[in-house]
Every structure is written in structure tokens, then in C-alpha cells.
Specification:
Chain A: It comes from Thalassospira povalilytica. Chain A: This is DUF3311 domain-containing protein. Chain A: Keywords: Membrane, Transmembrane, Transmembrane helix. The complex is a heterodimer of chains A (59) and B (926). Chain A is mainly alpha-helical. In chain A, 73% of the residues lie in helices and 7% in strands. Chain A contains 3 helices and 2 strands; from the N terminus they run H-H-E-E-H. In chain A, strands 1-2 form a two-stranded antiparallel sheet. Chain A is elongated. The model of chain A has no long low-confidence stretch (mean pLDDT 68). With 926 residues, chain B is mainly alpha-helical. Chain B folds into 4 domains: 387 residues, Sodium/glucose cotransporter (Up-down Bundle); 85 residues, no CATH class; 109 residues, Helix Hairpins (Orthogonal Bundle), CATH 1.10.287; 169 residues, Heat Shock Protein 90, CATH 3.30.565.10. In chain B, strands 6-7-5-4-2-9 form a 6-stranded mixed sheet. Chain B is elongated and about 165 Å long. Chain B starts with a helix and ends in a 7-residue tail after the last strand. Classes of the chains: A mainly alpha (59), B mainly alpha (926). At the A-B interface, helix 1, strand 2 and helix 3 of A face helix 4, helix 11, helix 13 and helix 15 of B.
Chain lengths: 59, 926
């Protein structure tokens, strides 16, 4: 959560505000959406781990 | 361009479809097979966050400010990714207290305060009004764009002459109707609206599908893929700057991020879908990643659509409606219609949920408390109040929707969609300090919360709402430019001369910081009431506490009184079911004239809290249980008493630990005593045995002498000598015993003098010379040159050495007996070692050999038993230990036994040289 917050507020965002393209897309655009996707995957894995932990605790 | 008949028909058809879904969802829920209660539907219902502001406005923002539109969605993403910290706690608390709205939540935290819930409700209504206006504007404008697509449409939208020709009016009417039909069908204790949730989830799917469809069309049909689109945009200097961050945008970026984080927590409709409509905490876990995923999909094509619109459309086209106008421009009228339906679903879902949430708040926290206070209405004595409640809610829905409509007609029509939405966000963000403070800080008080909220809201009104109203010509713009009373420090957008910030950032800096400051400071300087303290603890320690605050009520009301009370507010059927379930669960009676216990009264209060709010429920229950309610001071006393009892029991526990320890010690002592008793028995047995042997021989020889008078003289003499020897042995045995007993008891006389151990050794060797000679033992002595001055009883020490020497002589190898005596002066004492070359001592007996009568194992069976008493080593040990010395045996296998005695003393000057000497005597035979 804190990682996400720091990734997406200035000044870090400003560092990616560059001219140029990655895979034919603007760098900042890619930065946001790739980071977003990675965090979602990370959170899904974490949630699953938490649920498994809770289940094994319940047994 | 499409015909207005077609658009109206599609709109009505869509609303009809929604109605069907909602009706079906409600029906399924009542039949008990609700498919609404699953994580996917829950996540989609949270997506009510994406209103037409997202659907249309995000594209507009992207066209004006580039990637800034993302902040509104990154904030909620951050909150949801961190659901474990904040949302989970809010959910847990709300479930435990049957919270039905954000006003309820805040007022519950601060002592179920009615004033606070009224305040929160007012702020929420005022804050939501622009937001609803935004949706109405979106519906109206999108309708216009779709039907009157040309240069002149801008005017048409804003200058509708009559209210009735304004599509926004009809939209408002339709939405109010929908809210009434599905939000207020009946009064439920837990405020779940399955039908509404089902419809909202469906709408979320529709709007996502529509936006994705337009996005894909733009990227892959209008352009040759997304890369091509960006390449063209980068080539145009106007659009190229949208792909970068603007230099001065940092404060605004930060502000928007914080605002959106606050909004997802505080917007009444978000609170409704996330917290109130939640049926299972695990659903939240799924939503924590699924909702950010939904947001990501919604936002993916926003920038491409904006860029395409900027690139292709004429300059007069409003960027806010690119989602519709781009397909229209490309002559894809069906796609435009789909986009319109998507936008319609985004708007309707927001208005429906917001009005339902607000109507609950207005009814529970504003109207009902007010009505309860008007005594002449005798509301507390009326029979069935469900009808009244439903009527109040319906009326509030209509009022809220048309407040929004009024704002839209008057002020909001000129602003961009996103700007209207942000004004709304800023108002609800005022709840953040008291919410976060309430969840994690027990010190926050009601007064602090009230003052903070009033100050923050007033500043919001002055710095943000006022300029917005002035912009639309409702007020004299001079006030904005020159400040109130013409004072430059009071200019709403540059308060106290603070310049250099955008109006929104400026307003938030002032309102939130002063809100927080007042909340904290006043909380620190005011005393919370007893109820506030209890609620604060319940909220802040939500995870560490089990059970609920059932102690608040003392058993006093009759069960029937409570039952009737619930019946009045919830209706017959629901009261019946709730009470019956409670009765079954707790296994108590739930009807009758009997006394209700504290559990049941608390249950009634929570049940009522679900439908009329915590503050009102409290008033109602106390009207039934009047006069017998336990005062909160008493409750606190009880709590304190409990804590005393806990303390007392902790002390008891400690005592019992001590007792246990003592018992263990006693047990150990008892074991030791038993062991000693056993040893004593053993000792007695042994002593009797030892005494018996000489006595037996004395007796038997005496008897022979008596019985045979004419025995030969030689024999008589021999027998007599045996008798004498055995008597001596007996005497020695008894002497040794007495000696040992004295030593053990400490009664022995000690005449300590300074002696040189070498002289003692010399004397001892002299004394046993006879024994050594008789056995032809070769004796070797080695004394070191240095000696030590010992302060001991000389006779006792001699006794020890003689004992050790005679033992050595007895146990030396029978064929070539040899004994070595070595005396060494050491640092701090004198060490005497006496070594024989016999069979040695078994390793297991090295210790026990010093016990009384322990000699048995030392002898081989074929050897005659030596004449010792078996007490010599025991006595030696006592003597040595009395001199603070040490005695021990060593026996390396096959090298005989070595007994060592160490006695502490002071080193003396060297006197003699080493005197190695060999005593060798031929044996005389025995």
C-alpha cells in the first residue's frame, strides 16, 4: 500500500515523465499501467496467502 | 445523429431491464438463494465509484491535463491494496454495531451523538448535491450530443427554456422513482438491498463493456493499433505535452490523490456498498485486488480516446463527451448508442446508490431524532411506525435528487464534469480526520469532532462552494476577487494571503489542516463522557475485543415491551423472525411478560439501530426501559470493579504459583527424608551385622570353653586369644562409631595447631611400619622440598593418614606389595597422594567408597576380610572436610588406587631437601 502511494506521487512520478517510447507507447503511460498491474497481481497473491493462513489456523 | 425517439426508447428499455434485474435479485434473496452474495457481485457493486465522471469526465480531464485523470483511481487502488489496515477494521466495527451509514458510523464512535450525526448528514447531503448534479448533467448532455450532433448543440443543452423540456428533469424523476422502488421497499434491520446491488453490479458490467468497446474501436479501427495512435499524438505538439507530466502539477497531483483516497472511504454511497451491503468479510479480500483491476480496465483506453478526439474532432466538440462524439464522428451510431447506454448506467448507478444511502441517513439521523424530540407527536406511543419510516425515506430520496437537479439547473451547468466532482470530494474529505482519528485514537472526543467538522466544512463552503456559485452568476464576483468586506486577506481563493496554489489545493490545505488541528486540540482539552469512552474503546480495539457491550442495560423491561417496540419500527414479520432467531440462538424465551435480560435489551437496541440509527435507537429503548437504565457512571464502576476482580484473581494466581512452588519443595524434602530413613535402616542393619560377627565368634568360643572343661591348654589359650582379639575389634568398632557420630554431630574436640604435614606423614609412616613389615610391603616416600603450614588437629590428621596407609597396605598386590606416599606443597595447600599397586577401585565406587560400610565391593571373594570397621574412610572424609580440605580416590585401570588428600594452608620456606627413602623390610610372616 505504501509502495503504491510512493510510486504514484511526486516527485517519483516526475522522474518517469520522459520523452520517448517503450514498445511504441509513452514511457509514463507504460509506467503507470505496468505498475498498477503488478501491484494487483501482488495483492491477489498476498490475499490468497492470507486466506490460506486463516484457513489453516481455523483447522 | 440518432433520432430522439430511438434514444428515449433505448433509455426506457434499459431502465426497465434494470428494474427487472433488481426485482429478480430481491426475489431470489427473499427465497434464500441469493446469487448477489458473492465476491464478484460485491466487487462490481463497489465499481459504483466509476460514475459518469469516469465515463465521460475522465476523457475530458485526459484531453485537458493528460495523465492527471489517473489520480482519481490510483487513490482508491492504494486504499484497497491496503484493505487489511483500514477497510477491514471499518467493516468489523460496522458489523458489530449494525452501522447503516457513515453518519451512523461517526456518531456511534463519538458516543452515539445525535448532533454529530445530524452534522454529518447535512454535510453529506450538501456535498453530494453537486455530484448528483454532475450525473444529471451527464445524462442530459449525452442525450443532446447523441440527438443534436452539430455546432449548435452547446447552446441547446444549456438554455432549455422550460424545466419539462430538459432531459435532466426526466432523468431526475426516473432515478428518484427507481430509488423509491428499490431502496425503500421495506425496512430491514441490516439494510441490505440485494436487488439494488444486483442492478448496480449489472450496470458496472455495462459501463465497462461500453468503454472498452469504444476504446478498442478507437485504437484498432480508427488507428492502426495503440502504438500508431500514440505515435500520431506525439507528432502533434498540442497533444504531445499530454503524454508528459506538467511541470507545476505536483501539488495538484498530490491533492487529487489524497482526495480520491478520502473519497473511497467517506462518500456515503461508497460506504453503503463497501461496508453496509457487505455480507462476508472474505468478499472484501477478493475485492482488494479485483476492484483495482476493474479500475485499471476502465482507465486503459481513456487517454487513447482523448487523444483520438483531440486529433480528429473539430475544436468546438466538448472533450467531456468524446466517448460518444468520436464514434458519432466516425458514423458508428450504434457504437455511440452503446456508449450512451454505458454513460447512462454510470450515472444511474451513482444516483441510485447515493440517494438510497443519503435517504437512510436523512431518515435515521435527521428526521427521526427530530420527530422523537417533538413531544406532541407522541411518536413513541404510536403503533406501527414502519409506514412512517418508509415515507420519510421516499421523501428524502426525492428531495436529494431534486436538490441535485436544482444545482444542475443553476450552477453546475458551466463547469467541467471533473471540477464538479472534485468539489463534492472535497466536502466528504472533511470526514477523514474524525474517521481516521476515531479508528486509531481513543482520545478523540465528540466536541473535538464537532468543532473540527464545522470548521472544515465552513472553510470548504467559503473557499470552494462560494467561488463555484459566484462563477455561475449567483453571487457578486466582487466577493471572490476582493474578499469579504473588501479585505484582501478574506479572498476565498487566497485566504490570509496564501497564494500560488490552485483553488482546489488551496481549499483543501485550509479546510483539512484546520479541521484536523481543531479536532485534535479540542479533543485534548475536553473530557469525553462515559459513553464516548466506551465507544472509543470499542472502536479502536475492535480486533482485540470479543463480544459486545451488553452491560449497558440492566434487566428491567419486559420482553413484550421490547418486542412491541421492534414491531413498531420493523413491522410484524421482521420483528417476529428476529426475535425468534434470537431466542433460538440464546436458548431463552422471546415472548411473554417476563423480564428481558441485558442481552436481549442490547439486542433490541442493535436491531433498532439498524433501521433508525444508533442515536435514535438509544432514545427509543430507554423510553421503554425508562428509569431503570444503568447510568454510565455505574457501568464504568462495574468495569472498574471487574478490573479489580481481575487484579485480585491475578494476585490469587500468583499466590497459588507460590504455593505450588512450596509444595514442590516440600515434596523434595519429603523424598530426601524418606531416603535418609532408608539409609538409617540400612545403617542399622549393617551395624548390627558388623557387631554380630565378632559377638558370634566371642560367644561361640566362650561356649566351647564353658562346655568342655577338660580342653587342652593350647586350645584354651588360642580360643581365649581369639575372644580377646574379637573383643578388641568390637571395641574398636564401637569407638569408631562413636567417633564418627561425634564428627557427624560436630561434637568432636578439635585442637588445631600449626603443623608441618611432613612431620605428620613421617609419624604416620612410623606408626604403620609394623603392619607394612608384617606384609613385606615396599614403601616409597617422596616429599617435596617446600612445605606448607597447616592449621589442623594433628592427631586427627595422623588418624587419616594412618587409615589411608593401612588401607593401602591391605589392598596392595599380595605377591609384590608396594605403596608410594607422595607429599607436595602446592599453591594454597598441601597434597598427599598414597598409591598402592593392588586391584584398584571400580569406577562406580570412587565416590561411594567414602560412605559408611561401603567396603564390601572392594574385596575379591578369595581374600580374607580385613579387620577394619569400614568406617575409616568415612571418618577420614569428615576430618578432611572439617579442615576445608578435599579427599578423593583415583583408580586408572590396572594401576592400583591412589587416594589423595588436599588440605589448604600457607607455603613455608624450604627446610629440607627431598628425602627419597625406601623402607624395605623382610616379612616375618603372620
Amino acid at each position: 500500500m505504501l509502495v503504491a502511494l510512493f510510486l504514484w506521487i511526486p516527485p517519483l512520478v516526475g522522474m518517469f515523465s520522459l520523452d520517448g517510447m517503450v514498445f511504441g507507447l509513452p514511457i509514463l503511460f507504460v509506467y503507470f499501467f505496468a505498475g498498477w498491474g503488478i501491484l494487483i497481481i501482488f495483492c491477489a497473491l498476498l490475499t490468497r496467502a492470507l486466506r490460506n493462513a486463516a484457513q489453516s489456523e481455523g483447522r | 445523429m440518432l433520432s430522439s425517439e430511438l434514444v428515449i426508447f433505448v433509455s426506457l428499455f434499459y431502465v426497465g431491464l434494470l428494474y427487472t434485474i433488481a426485482w429478480w435479485g430481491d426475489k431470489r434473496a427473499r427465497d434464500g438463494h441469493s446469487w448477489v452474495r458473492n465476491p464478484t457481485v460485491y466487487t462490481l457493486s463497489i465499481a459504483v465509484y466509476c460514475t459518469s465522471w469516469t465515463f465521460y469526465g475522465a476523457v475530458g480531464t485526459a484531453a485537458r491535463n493528460g495523465l492527471e485523470y489517473l489520480t482519481i483511481y490510483l487513490g482508491p487502488t492504494v486504499i484497497f491494496l491496503g484493505w487489511w489496515f483500514l477497510l477491514r477494521k471499518m467493516l468489523r466495527i460496522s458489523k458489530a454495531h449494525r452501522i447503516t451509514s457513515i453518519a451512523d458510523f461517526i456518531s456511534s464512535r463519538y458516543g452515539k451523538s445525535t448532533q454529530l450525526s445530524v452534522l454529518v448528514t447535512l454535510i453529506a447531503v450538501v456535498g453530494t448535491t453537486p455530484y448528483i448534479a454532475l450525473q444529471l448533467k451527464a445524462i442530459a448532455t449525452s442525450y443532446t450530443v447523441l440527438t443534436v450532433w452539430d455546432h449548435g448543440m452547446v447552446d441547446t443543452a444549456q438554455h432549455s427554456l422550460s424545466i419539462f423540456s430538459d432531459s435532466g428533469f426526466w432523468a431526475a424523476l426516473g432515478l428518484a422513482l427507481f430509488g423509491i422502488l428499490f431502496g425503500t421497499r421495506f425496512i430491514d434491520a441490516d439494510e441490505h438491498h440485494e436487488g439494488m446491488v444486483a442492478a448496480i453490479a449489472f450496470e458496472s458490467l455495462v459501463k465497462m463493456f461500453a468503454l472498452l468497446a469504444v476504446g478498442i474501436f478507437v485504437c484498432f479501427v480508427m488507428y492502426g493499433g495503440i502504438g500508431d495512435l500514440f505515435a500520431q499524438a506525439a507528432a502533434n505538439p498540442d497533444t504531445a505535452q499530454l503524454l508528459l507530466l506538467r511541470e507545476d502539477s505536483a501539488p495538484r497531483w498530490l491533492t487529487l490523490m489524497m482526495l480520491s483516497m478520502a473519497a473511497i472511504l467517506c462518500l456515503p454511497r461508497q460506504f453503503q456498498v463497501i461496508i453496509v451491503e457487505n455480507v462476508d468479510e472474505r468478499h472484501l479480500a477478493t475485492a482488494s485486488w479485483a476492484f483495482p483491476l476493474y479500475l485499471l480496465l476502465m482507465n486503459l483506453f481513456v487517454l487513447p480516446i482523448a487523444l483520438a478526439g483531440l486529433g480528429a474532432l473539430p475544436a468546438w466538440a466538448d472533450p467531456d463527451f468524446f466517448v460518444i462524439s468520436v464514434p458519432l464522428f466516425e458514423n458508428q451510431s450504434m457504437l455511440a448508442l452503446l456508449a450512451y447506454v454505458g454513460g447512462l448506467s454510470a450515472s444511474t448507478s451513482m444516483v441510485i446508490v447515493a440517494t438510497i444511502a443519503l435517504s437512510t441517513m436523512v431518515c435515521n439521523d435527521l428526521i427521526v431524532p427530530a420527530l422523537l424530540r417533538i413531544k406532541p407527536l407522541r411518536l413513541t406511543e404510536r403503533d406501527d411506525l414502519t409506514g412512517l419510516l418508509i415515507f420519510i425515506r421516499r421523501a428524502s430520496i426525492v428531495v436529494v435528487v431534486f436538490l441535485g437537479f436544482a444545482y444542475y439547473r443553476s450552477a453546475g451547468a458551466t463547469d467541467a464534469l471533473a471540477e464538479i466532482g472534485l468539489i463534492s470530494f472535497a466536502a466528504t474529505a472533511q470526514f477523514i480526520p474524525i474517521m481516521i482519528g476515531g479508528l486509531y485514537w481513543k482520545g478523540g472526543t465528540k466536541t473535538g469532532a464537532q468543532v473540527g467538522l464545522v470548521v472544515g466544512f465552513a472553510l470548504w463552503g467559503y473557499t470552494l462552494l462560494l467561488p463555484s456559485l459566484a462563477d455561475s452568476g449567483w453571487m457578486d464576483p466582487a466577493l471572490i476577487q476582493n474578499g469579504a468586506f473588501g479585505h484582501p486577506w478574506l479572498r476565498p481563493e487566497n485566504l490570509l494571503g496564501l497564494t500560488g496554489f490552485a483553488p482546489l489545493t488551496h481549499a483543501l490545505i485550509w479546510s483539512i489542516s484546520l479541521n484536523t488541528a481543531f479536532y485534535v486540540l479540542i479533543s485534548l482539552f475536553t473530557q469525553p463522557s462515559a459513553l464516548e469512552r466506551i465507544q472509543a474503546t470499542l472502536f479502536v480495539d475492535a480486533f482485540s475485543r470479543k463480544g459486545q457491550d451488553t452491560v449497558i442495560w440492566r434487566s428491567s423491561a419486559s420482553i413484550d415491551d421490547l418486542y412491541e417496540l421492534v414491531e413498531r419500527f420493523l413491522g410484524r414479520e421482521r420483528a417476529f423472525h428476529s426475535f425468534r432467531e434470537f431466542g433460538w440462538e440464546k436458548d431463552t424465551s422471546w415472548r411473554g411478560k417476563g423480564e428481558a435480560d441485558a442481552d436481549m435489551i442490547a439486542f433490541t437496541e442493535r436491531l433498532l439501530a439498524g433501521s433508525i440509527g444508533a442515536a435514535s435507537a438509544r432514545v427509543m429503548v430507554s423510553s421503554v426501559a425508562k428509569g431503570e437504565m444503568v447510568s454510565l457512571e455505574e457501568v464504568l464502576e462495574i468495569l472498574e470493579e471487574t478490573s479489580h476482580v481481575i487484579e485480585y484473581s491475578q494476585r490469587l494466581e500468583q499466590k497459588s504459583h507460590e504455593l505450588e512452588k512450596a509444595a514442590a519443595e516440600l515434596r523434595a524434602a519429603n523424598d530426601r527424608l524418606k531416603e535418609l530413613d532408608r539409609l538409617k535402616d540400612e545403617f542399622l542393619t549393617m551395624v548390627s551385622h558388623e557387631f554380630r560377627t565378632p559377638l558370634t565368634s566371642i560367644r561361640s568360643f566362650s561356649e566351647i570353653l564353658v562346655d568342655t572343661p577338660n580342653l587342652e591348654h593350647d586350645k584354651v589359650e588360642h580360643f581365649l586369644s581369639i575372644i580377646v582379639r574379637e573383643s578388641e575389634r568390637l571395641t574398636r568398632l564401637i569407638d569408631d562409631h562413636l567417633d564418627l557420630a561425634r564428627l557427624e554431630a560436630g561434637h568432636s574436640d578439635w585442637r588445631a595447631v600449626d603443623v608441618d604435614p611432613r612431620t605428620v606423614l613421617d609419624e604416620s609412616v612410623e606408626a604403620v611400619k609394623g603392619l607394612f613389615d608384617s606384609r613385606a610391603v615396599q614403601l616409597t616416600t617422596e616429599f617435596s622440598r617446600q612445605s606448607v603450614l597447616l592449621h589442623v588437629d594433628r592427631d586427627r590428621l595422623t588418624q587419616v593418614f594412618i587409615n589411608l596407609l593401612s588401607n593401602a597396605a591391605k589392598f596392595a598386590d599380595p605377591d609384590h606389595p608396594s605403596v608410594t606416599v607422595r607429599g607436595e606443597a602446592m599453591d594454597g595447600g598441601y597434597l598427599v597422594s598414597i598409591t598402592d599397586n593392588g586391584r584398584g577401585v571400580a569406577q562406580t565406587e570412587l565416590e561411594t567408597i567414602f560412605d559408611k560400610f561401603s567396603r564390601s565391593g572392594k574385596y575379591a571373594d578369595d581374600q580374607p576380610k580385613p579387620s577394619g570397621s569400614g568406617l575409616g574412610l568415612a571418618i577420614a572424609r569428615h576430618v578432611v572436610e572439617h579442615c576445608q580440605g578435599k579427599i578423593w580416590a583415583e583408580s586408572p585401570p590396572g594401576q592400583g588406587a591412589t587416594f589423595r588428600v588436599f588440605i589448604p594452608g600457607q607455603i613455608m620456606e624450604a627446610i629440607d631437601a627431598v628425602r627419597p627413602g625406601v623402607f624395605r623390610t623382610d616379612s616375618f610372616g603372620t
